Amino acid sequence: MEETLMRDPLLLRRLEESIRFVDEKIKAAENDKRPFVLALCGSFSSGKTSMVNALLEEKLSLPTGNFPITKVITRIRWADRTGIRLENPARGISRELTLAEAQKAARTELSEQELGGTCLCIETDAPFLRRDLVLVDTPGFDDDVDKKLDAVTIREIKQADLCLLMFNAAKFGTRDERSFLKEMNDMTNGWFMPVLNCMNLVNTEDSENELMRRAALLFRDCGNEQLGYGRFFPVCTLPGYTDMNGLDAWLEKTIREQSLYLRHVMPLQHAQYEMKKIADDAADVQTRIWTLLAGLKQQSDQETERKKKQARGDLEPIRQACTRMQAELQNAVIPAVCSQFSKLSATDFPAETQRLLRNAVLPFSDLAQKKIGGDVTPSLRRRMEGELAVFAVHEPVRHVRKRGFLEALVSPLPYEVTYNNFAEAAAVAVKSKLLPKLNRALSDYAADVETREKKAARREIAAAADTGEIALWEEYLEQLSGQLLTLSDSRQKVLKLLRSYS
Amino acid sequence: MSDQYSASLVSLVTRYFDDHNYRYEFDREKGVLTAQFNIENKFKGYTQIITFDKLTYTVFSFLKEKTEERWRSEVVEFLTRANYGLKFGCFGMDLSDGEIYIKASVDCDNRIPSTAVLQTSLDIGDKLLLDYGNALWSVMRGLASPEDACSAAEKR
């Protein structure tokens, strides 16, 4: 199933951590006075502490087994006297402890807190430590159920110059060693040496041969990359029966010959490896986001285009309705009104014509408004009312003529009163003066409706174009890219340092 | 970080540089990446400057040597002749001081440039200088006519 792409804050955090990790490595590589750090790691009861005792030639004799001191990170360094200290250089803590206090601290404060740089330091005058060497005894991988210690152990392993990876010969092959070895290769950049401890527990020669065959096969496939595939040391660290099988000599030789490389170049190579790995992961996500964004933008463009087309389509009926209503006004309403003028008497003609026009035009304006579109300000009705109000209908012109003598005999009135063709004159005025104004009112109204519709369409188009999803992804992409740029800065620093060492 | 350029484009280019172990400097304020490259011809090397904006990046490869004033018209003719047949990238010259550059611009709107596009655009200076560099060097010193030098470079 295809993995869903997420705006994953964990990736940003991983990048941040990698940048911090690389900075630490750069600092470690630049620090000439830094001691050589040899870490011992392995699963619970794999003989780490007994290996420490063996390396120190029983100078310290740390109690082995489920002993609380070595359930937390323990550093062992050279001093001219033996003692235990609780240290946190960042917080300026350094206090001497008795064995009982150390056991109590390991059970309480050291196991409960996040171990933010606080650790137990054991000082001893064992010759093995004279060469500015620090042994780091880590808790077994399965010691803590909530895995809090695992994270600290992994950090220590990553910061060490060389690791001894301890396996209990009696339990060898009962776990998923392959993935564990792969993980160790990643964590140490290939600088670890597998050690098969507790060889005294392998009773028969056949079982020993079988064990050695299986171990050789396993380490040839998944052993360390830097120290030669397939290489491992079978040892016995049982007090009184110690057989290091050349491991101590190999360690001395490696530390003597490779110290400069391991202390300066290897941390940088390790950092380079880490950076490459995280940069590749992030770049993969970046590419996928870019592709996703391209799709989203294309979709948004299509949506915008569709909305534009729709908006253009929406305006057409308005124009058509306006033209239709103008034609209706031209063909039906005004001529009908005009024809009724002839039925009106000369008396109160202007008022009557106004009434007729109002009765015909105002309901028409409501109808037109309905057909063209919704109500807009100023409304069509008000505009037409205004036009009607300013439209002046001339009063009928009266002609008075005095009758002649003979006419006067026939007619009782001495004067004859006639009117001009007032109905026709009014109809002409309506057609030539009022009708164009009403038509203009209709057009203006339609234009108002059109403008309003265009504005609404623009809003819709803008909404279609600017989807929040795109903005969110772009923001995430910028954050990710910003982190990648910082990582690139670190990569350049590492490259510069590596060149200076080469 | 400046709002004038796309950080994702920059990270894409810096990653290419990092993966090839190239040294460079990136000015975050201006959005300009600078790198120095050596080349196996008479110019010996060039400076690559990449400018970024929101949707595009432009690669300039500046020669370290400038054209003397007396040979500028010949060099301009040579560059025009060379540009005529180019599919991607172009030569240019600043007539005020005789500085010569190769320029290529990539539009990345709505699409991520593939590795091939990235490689072509970033290696364009190298490629064009390998093809035309020695001929240009001769024209810059008046040792060859622009026409002869250009046709000789294109025959190679």
Summarize the structure.
Chain A is of the alpha/beta class and 502 residues long.
Kindly list the characteristics that best describe this protein.
heterodimer; A: about 500 residues; alpha/beta; Rossmann fold; 2 domains; nine-stranded mixed β-sheet; two-stranded antiparallel sheet; 13 helices; B: about 160 residues; alpha+beta; Yope Regulator, Chain: A
Describe the structure.
The complex is a heterodimer of chains A (502) and B (156). Chain A is an alpha/beta fold. Chain A has 2 domains: 1-33 and 263-392 and 420-502, no CATH class; 35-245, P-loop containing nucleotide triphosphate hydrolases (Rossmann fold, 3-Layer(aba) Sandwich). In chain A, 60% of the residues lie in helices and 12% in strands. Chain A has helices spanning 9-30, 48-55, 99-107, 109-112, 148-159, 177-188, 205-222, 247-341, 349-372, 380-390, 405-410, 422-465, 468-501, and strands spanning 36-42, 74-78, 83-88, 93-97, 119-124, 133-137, 162-168, 192-197, 233-234, 398-402, 415-419. In chain A, the strands form 2 sheets. In chain A, strands 4-3-5-2-6-1-7-8-9 form a 9-stranded mixed beta sheet, with helices on both faces. A two-stranded antiparallel sheet of chain A has the order 10-11. In chain A, α7 links the parallel β8 (192-197) and β9. Chain A is rod-shaped and about 170 Å long. The model of chain A has no long low-confidence stretch (mean pLDDT 81). Chain B has 156 residues and is an alpha+beta fold. In chain B, 39% of the residues lie in helices and 28% in strands. Chain B contains 5 helices and 6 strands, in the order αββββαββααα. Chain B has helices at residues 7-19, 72-84, 115-122, 124-140, 146-155, and strands at residues 25-27, 32-38, 45-52, 56-66, 90-94, 99-107. In chain B, α2 packs antiparallel against α4, α2 packs parallel to α5 (146-155) and α4 (124-140) packs antiparallel against α5. The mean pLDDT of chain B is 91. Classes of the chains: A alpha/beta (502), B alpha+beta (156). The A-B interface holds A 275-276, 279, 283, 286-287, 290-291, 293-294, 297-298, 477-478, 480-482, 484-485, 488-489, 491-492, 495-496 and B 1, 6-8, 10-12, 14-15, 17-19, 21, 23-26, 28, 110-112.
